[in-house]
Amino acid sequence: MNYDRTAKQQQNYVNQYHRRMIQQDLITPAGNGQVRFKLPLFKEYLDDTQDINSVRYDPLL
Question: What is the pTM of this model?
């Protein structure tokens, strides 16, 4: 397996969604690898979607 290619594909995937969220005014860049959420409670919502015990849990996110 070519790990360099897989890592680059994953980074491209992340960059795509990062760019979309900036364009939709959901986040702003806040330094190297950091973002600032612009919507109130948006960070908490995203955290809930990854918490298996939450009613908002979505394993596809």
Answer: 0.55
